[in-house]
User: Which sequence fits this backbone?
């Protein structure tokens, strides 16, 4: 009888440790990846759903669905032990590893970007600069023609007749 109670206490103590590990998993996600508030709410709901399933599974598997107060006491002790003793190291090691991998990935990505930037710059010079040069020259050409046409109209008597007829 006492061995069964110790066994159950140990199982639920381990559940508390697992819940602490799950809690740190979501903390690591939040610190490593900046997420909007909606995603944070979803993560929180997912944490509580997973925690509830874990506790219910353990209660039904190891204690035939009987709920005892010492189970929740054991879960709390397991979580607190994890949080006090292990959590700090898990967070530090994991976040340091993630940041290191991010830096390596960022460095590799910046190295890979260089040839693509060179290709894009060359592509712009070969294709877009001549096209924009042609478009600018066509626009300037038509602007000069329009200005010359306006000047000719101003000097001619036809324009004064059109202006007089338009006023009447």
Assistant:
């Amino acid at each position: 009888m006492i061995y069964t109670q110790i066994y159950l206490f140990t199982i639920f103590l381990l559940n508390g440790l697992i819940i602490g590990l799950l809690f740190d998993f979501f903390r690591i996600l939040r610190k490593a990846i900046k997420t909007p508030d909606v995603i944070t709410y979803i993560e929180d709901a997912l944490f509580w759903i997973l925690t509830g399933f874990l506790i219910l599974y353990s209660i039904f598997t190891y204690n035939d669905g009987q709920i005892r107060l010492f189970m929740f006491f054991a879960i709390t002790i397991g979580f607190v032990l994890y949080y006090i003793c292990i959590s700090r190291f898990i967070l530090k090691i994991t976040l340091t590893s993630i940041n290191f991998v991010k830096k390596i990935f960022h460095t590799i990505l910046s190295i890979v970007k260089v040839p693509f930037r060179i290709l894009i710059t060359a592509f712009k010079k070969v294709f877009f600069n001549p096209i924009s040069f042609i478009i600018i020259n066509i626009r300037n050409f038509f602007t000069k023609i329009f200005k010359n046409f306006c000047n000719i109209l101003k000097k001619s008597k036809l324009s004064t007749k059109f202006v007089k007829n338009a006023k009447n």
